[in-house]
Amino acid sequence: MENNTIYTAKDFKSDQYVRWCPGCGDHAVVNTLQKAMAELGIPPHMTAVISGIGCSSRLPYYMNTYGFHTIHGRASAIATGVKVANPELTVWQITGDGDCLAIGGNHFIHAVRRNVDLNIILLNNKIYGLTKGQYSPTSDRGAVTKSSPYGTVEDPFIPAELAFGARGTFFARSIDVDLSVAKEVMVEAARHKGASVVEILQNCVIFNDKIHSFVADKEFRAERTIHLKHGEKMLFGKNNEKGLVLDGLKLKVVTIGENGVTLDDILTHDVTDQDGTLHRMLAMMDGHELPLAVGVIRSVEAPVYDQEVKAQIESVRAQTNRRTLRDYLLTRDTWEVK
Amino acid sequence: MLEQTKVKTLDKVAVRFTGDSGDGMQLAGNLFSNVSAAIGNEISTFPDYPAEIRAPQGTLGGVSGFQVHIGKGVYTPGDQADVLVAMNPAALKTNVAYIKPNAVIIYDTDSFTANDLEKAAFVTDDPFNELGLTGMQLVPVAITSMVKDSLAGSGLDNKAVLRCKNMFALGLVCWLFDRPLDQATHLLKNKFAKKPSVLEANIKVMTDGYNYGNNIHATVSTYRIETATAKKGIYTDINGNTATALGLIAASEKSGLPLFLGSYPITPASDILHELAKRKDLGVKVVQAEDEIAGVCTAIGASFAGNLAATSTSGPGLALKSEAIGLAVMAELPLVIIDVQRGGPSTGLPTKTEQTDLLQALYGRNGESPIVVVAASTPADCFDMAFNAAKLALEHMTPVILLTDGFIANGSSAWRIPEMEEYPEIVPHYVTPDLLEKNWRPYHRDTETQVRFWAKPGMEGFMHRLGGLEKDSITGAISTNPANHQKMTDIRQAKIDYISKCIPALEVLGNPDADLLVVGWGGTYGHLYSAVEKMNAEGKKVAMVHFNYINPLPANTAEVMKKYRKVVVCELNNGQLATHLCSKIPGLNVEKFNKVQGQPFMVSELVECFNKLMEE
């Protein structure tokens, strides 16, 4: 859309009082999203923000765009309808780990599989906040919560793995406290044509405080995370002295200058690689042996559902003279009563 | 068999084609009804097919039937058939209940071997005697062997040859009822345009069947059927599902809005999805969703984005959609939900008909959640009611449930192709630019109709947020204020109640000075009307009202209902409309006639019931 207006974050801010708990990671997300939208320059009236139910799903109320706070788990399906009905709109889906991966898991994987042009922002705090503290499908095995007083006995989803399993074309990750990466991945998600999944590791200060602190705390972040950028070497560490290499079929951390390792040995990130093997390996790194990856991990081109729907209708219409219902009805088997 | 042929002149005649579900009985029946309609008969058809796609050949579970009723004054497919075509013993056995005592039975002798009889669980070698079929006019025809002879040297393989058996039966029946073959030939040419060898074989076998009938004067009676005097125009044969799909397209044209369908396959509603998926030539957008919930949710998203949005389903699917329908109630978005009712509860009887979803449609949601509920009464009426459902949804910003059923969805009738000028414009309640100067808020509404203004994403200046949480009555912001919730609950109800002023009044049919008022709704119209007409012809005084609009009820409902000494509500459920009427009309007393067998009413049982009530 041609548009010369310069927008600021304020243009995307609604007049509603923000009701999240003080210290909640969601505050940073909404502010960053408004900045990302300003940078994208798409007018507020051409933007629709769709959410399900949960703390994070309150977000549309704080945006001065078209918004729809729907029902639990169904945001992917409703957003799909919005985008197919009007492909000119930029459609964002705001969702949480319970909304998206438990009750809404089916709609999520199918929106990703179809590659509907949605920007899905998944705020992952590994807990149900709005219902006051039950474990979610991303809670770690053994997590002690209100509904698992003796610890959970089930393994969590890794959102990236699920997105890739659903043949996702775009996956990015950031941490709520790292505003610049969060804005970067939101902008890239919007620019990607197709279903973009952005996982934001978000802190629930009340029910799951510090759940991401192992990677999110400033004192460890440089050592335990790696900011991946397309076309650049996979480097991390306080002085970017560490890097990732392939050792057989596995990723390994090396230090430049040690054991004869040079910069040339370090892997270069390619978000466009159709073969998602390396993307998956990067996305599965968790900050322990290997650094947790933030930034855009995968961004590949593929046919986009809403555009395909539109194109198919246009191509069928180009091959027929039928323009009205009556035109069609008269092509059926008919007889005349005189 | 070879007695002198008698020619009977009848008002109407019902023919039932039955065979294995792979025998092409639906096609034969369809062609016969089309041919009859083309020569001026009224038609009504009813396919009766099993839930199994291909049960083992020759078994009772695999029998598929198609009943065609033709003539003058035809409102139903007929209680019982005058002619039964039975391609095998299983078909005979499962259909004896649906034929008249002196019916003509045409059967394929080649398929009545000991082995075939055993598959159909006959214990003797005389199936007719075993079934107690005396007084029937039996017409044994070696259909299979004659078809093989007819197509010897055609180059078709044995399987393809056998698939033409239905055309032999069709040709024979066409002779029996004096139908020329040109219209059937024309229809076959359209159907098999891309398969010339199959087309040629079908036409040859059909012609041979016709000539065979002529040569042997195949039965004791041939029939001449009265033609009806229909309104001038171009006609087509249409079933309820297709009519529903096309009614939505008409509404899309009249409102100037793109049509969006979000749907998930379910029997017996899937043909709506199929028809609209084909209508890309008219710009229809269809999403086959991952489940029923996504079907309605994609539609709600499309409605939010400014399309005419619909979802199609049957009872189990409606249950899954109920939470999302509540969202559309709360967000006050237009939405059409089509429920093609089938036997329930649970998976129930997927291919059979019932009216058991009325209370689900009216009340099956959490909270005080009023919506519009309408019903279609005949296959052709599905077009009008789909149109009207869309009009109400768009003009009143509300979900509307349209109830049809398996009987009218799959049954067909002749339908005059309308001129679109015959239908009213649809004018959605959009925001207008001047509202921005008047400090527009998303829940501002028309003070009379209570309808809020529709602002579609993409419109500058009207950005707003909707949602399932209770809204402030003006600003649309989240509100938990007790008085506001009461106010919004009242507004949502008043908005639906107002619609009673926008729908047609209830019309009394039959004899208005009657002793008995017959009440029905939806797909039972044809049977009820036939029964009432029959009784009035016999000098009894019977009146009838039939509901197309169920919530809200037509404004004159109480007045009409209270005028009659005796009222009987007839439904294919245990009394759901009766319950609804009694709850809305204080002091109303009704008799009930209910049937829950997965089958439509029979005119005869209705007449019997009404006579009994009048004697009491």
What does this structure look like?
The complex is a heterodimer of chains A (338) and B (616). Chain A has 338 residues and is of the alpha/beta class. Chain A has a domain at 9-211: Rossmann fold, CATH 3.40.50.970. Chain A is built from eleven helices and 14 strands. Chain A has helices at residues 25-40, 75-85, 97-103, 105-114, 159-165, 179-191, 213-216, 218-224, 277-284, 305-318, 325-329, and strands spanning 47-51, 66-69, 90-96, 118-124, 127-128, 134-135, 170-175, 196-201, 225-228, 235-236, 242-247, 250-255, 292-299, 334-337. In chain A, strands 2-1-3-4-8-7-13-9 form an eight-stranded mixed beta sheet, with helices on both faces. In chain A, strands 10-11-12 form a three-stranded antiparallel beta sheet. In chain A, helix 1 (25-40) crosses helix 6, helix 2 packs parallel to helix 10 (305-318) and helix 3 (97-103) crosses helix 4. Chain A starts with 24 loop residues before the first helix and ends with a strand. Helices cover 37% and strands 21% of the residues of chain B. Chain B is globular and about 85 Å long. The interface between A and B is large, with 57 and 73 residues.
Please write the CATH class name of the largest domain in chain B. Alpha Beta
Q: Tell me the CATH topology of the largest domain in chain B.
A: Pyruvate-ferredoxin Oxidoreductase, domain 3
CATH evolutionary superfamily of the largest domain in chain B: Pyruvate-ferredoxin oxidoreductase, PFOR, domain III
Morphology call of chain B: globular
Low-confidence stretches of chain A: none
Q: CATH superfamily of the domain at 9-211 in chain A, please?
A: Thiamin diphosphate (ThDP)-binding fold, Pyr/PP domains
Rounded average pLDDT of chain B: 93
* Proportion of residues in extended strands of chain B: 15-25%
Instruction: Report the structural category of chain B.
Output: alpha/beta
Second CATH tier, the architecture of the domain at 9-211 in chain A: 3-Layer(aba) Sandwich
Strand content of chain A: 15-25%
The low-confidence parts of chain B are none
Domains of chain B (count): 4
- Helix share, percent of chain B: 25-40%
